[in-house]
Structure prediction request, 287 residues.
Amino acid sequence: MTDLPAHAPDQAYIRVSALEAGHIEIPLDWAIDTAKEGEKSVVPALSFLLRHTQNNDLFVFDLGIRKDLENLPAGYLARIAKMGFRAEVPLDAADSLARGGLEPTDITHVCYSHIHFDHIGDSRPYTRATFVVGEGARALVADGWPKNPDALFAQDLLPEGRTRFLDPSDWPPLGPFPHAYDFYGDGSLYIVDAGSGHVAGHINVLARTSPDGGWVYLAGDSGHDRRLLTGEAKIPTHPYYGSEHLARIRTLMETYPRVRVLLAHDREWYEINKGGPAYWPGVMDSL
Prediction:
């Protein structure tokens, strides 16, 4: 295992702010093996605003849920109903940005951990942003709706000419992770390959949150319940999650006490922090 990179003189870092971007009720027995039959959990669909301290880049990681779910491809709406998901979106990511005086057109990069409906939000207002996704998303969108009437993903989800598909195959290792990419080239923000255990192209973000060694790890859907990280529960047997990557995240937590790990649906963190200073226009404290 490699070490996380040490901080340099005049080290650039990232100011991280959470964004309200909807909630989703999920059958809990999909997420953890200790759930009772029929048990449900209402979890946030977290979005994050990441602001580089030196180049003024505005980077949003995930957009949560869109308000007009009815405009998703019909195949995806059928799947949502079949899986028993129920979404509510009092505020989407654009509404949350506006609370701190930002418009979607101010955003430089929109990075999707993956392209499931509770992460892609409504991309249409982000007309000046470059979209950043894992390479595995390319084929899912190329064979998307309406070309494939049964597809879960729309062909126009990722704007042509403004999308970077990141191929992790030749990225070097970082900490416990086999592949990570130094996005700005200054050690402030890394895109981490999360493997294909959840969906093709799944990526996470490791962001430096202080000039002297604080970090946050935004784990996307590497797990859907914090008990998977603490060891209180395990992943049920089904094809939607990847335990190998979760084990690496646990190693990160155990090895580096100044890394805060957040899941995209981190209900426990949300209940403690909702409406507080970790939300934009506030800034999350660094460990």
User: Anything to note?
Assistant: The mean pLDDT is 94. Residues 243-255 form the longest helix (13 residues). The radius of gyration is 18 Å.
